[in-house]
Target: Cyclic nucleotide gated channel subunit alpha 2
Amino acid sequence: MFHELNFKIRRIRVSWKLCSFLFFYVLFLTLVPQVILGFITYSREELLNIRAMSTHHQYDQEYDFPEADPVFCLPPRTTEWIPACDPKQRRRKRGNRSGLLVRLRRWAHRAPDPSILLANVQSLDNKIDEIGVFLSVVKPFLGEKLILIGMLILSPADNIYYHWLLIISTAVLYNWCLLVARACFDELQTSGAIVWLVLDYLCDGLYILDTAVRLRTGFLEQGLLVKDLSKLRDSYLKTVQFKLDLLSILPTDLFYLSLGIHTPLLRFNRLLRFNRMFEFFDRTETRTSYPNAFRITNLVLYILVIIHWNACMYYSFSKALGLGSDSWVYPNQTTLSRGYIYCLYWSTLTLTTIGETPPPVRDEEFLFVVFDFLVGVLIFASIVGNVGAMISNMNATRAEFQSRIDQVKHYMQFRHVSRDLEHRVIRWFDYLWTNQKAVDEQEVLKSLPNKLRAEIAINVHLETLKKVRIFQDCEAGLLVELVLKLRPQVFSPGDYICRKGDIGKEMYIIKDGRLAVVGDDGATQLAMLTSGSCFGEISILNIRGSKMGNRRTANIRSLGYSDLFCLSKRDLTEALSDFPHARTQLEQRGRDILRKEGLLDEVGGDSLGVEEMEEKVGKLEACVDRLQTRLARLQMEYATAQQRLKQRITALEHSVGTTVTVGSGFLSDADGNESGGDDGARSEINIRL
Model:
């Protein structure tokens, strides 16, 4: 009887759905034509054509229409468009006659009211012509748009593709969580059936659209993005993912007609599009600036999904055995939220192998608990391992930095460094770690190609280098070379960057911090250098005639922790070797700066040039002497080698019983030059053998 009653209820539901469908269908057929007719408009000429084509309008001679159109009362010269479904009431000219007989005669001979539907039917040909003209105008524009859409190929590296992955991943996660819950908790499914239907078919639409996106997603081949639609289609159709995508959009909802809409189990094929969510996670991990935090969040999400699924399975298994039938199964609670929370609690305790749940009673319950324990051990063991690896990776930089500190501490203790200096070293390390300066930039960027490394260096240091006076207005190639050679340095409070009288081998650019120009006593502050300042640029150019030469003229000390960029004289000379014109310009610009500050000795510069030339000539003579000495040594070594070779050949002749008479071992030619007898001796040996 219960099954028969259930069958009747289903028939009533189907009949109610059919009646609702027919009602809305008739309403649609009734309203849509009227709305469409409301948008159809006519000009005066078209209305006159309608009147000429119509044979149903017989107008009374007694009507006078001196200023109006007989059909729709349009003014004679109007060009405005009037809706066809909005007829105008005709104006009549009242006569002088009165009385009932006259009014009846007028009523009998009155013209029939114009039929709007008939006028629209008669103007169908005109409307077809209008549509043809409209399409002829719009078609080229739409054609171009359709061509552009047809040529659209998505690159996996584009932001629009990444955002699409976010949308489709949301749909997949919806099916993974709510679809499984609705299949197990009947109250959840029945309480919002209409909402679930809307969300389900919205996700189905996204799935179908995602299949089209996959067909138009390019891939790299030999470093180039493939945009050939046939190649993209063939590549996608050959993958296993295409089969899964095809299965995920099969219309299994058609079985709703026989089983009812409260069977979400039919939609479990939507769970097969999981790879899009995994792809989104992989790309997010690559894009984000906090990969470790994202990995932990992703891992927590996986754990919650597994616990959620197991909770739903526990509820379904309890429902199959009978809710509240024993102490292990789910007790028949009253509210949906309380039931789900209880199942989630039971699933968490079981999968984490904590226990403390009611013991199983039946054999089926024992098997279910054993299966849950095995799944919990395997899954959570791998999860704990991944968490440990993540934490190790997060602390790898800290561990390496701590190892460096320990090595320095051990060295200072071994060498009995003073306590004060040891504290300064430790404070310097603390500053590096606190301000995230403990990473070696060159070591980090070593794995990048030279092109990308140069672009990063330009992005970081180019603006700083442009602040230097002598490098302003330099060509871009030289600046790029110099940017790659800048080295960061950190100075502690009280450290001297340079002292008066020292030979200048580097120039410095202040990135952050405050430096003081102090006197010889170390206490008097003569000037203050802040961020963006630079010093030492003239000394590394070694400009002739400079009164200060290449020596420092002041004491510069760091007041606090200071971050500086250093450019050595050797690196500058190496960079300028490829830019001789830029070298000349830099020297001239430096000479102008020295002249402006009164630090250039013009006369001394010429004499200095002569002295430098003589010094270079002396160096060349010394090089020539060294080369001659080396050449003589090589000649002696060659003669010694020839003598040894002669002795070995003689010993070989005696060993084979030959009687070869060789004078001194050398033959003299007509010029008196000596030549070794190697070839002659070898020829005689070959002949006798």
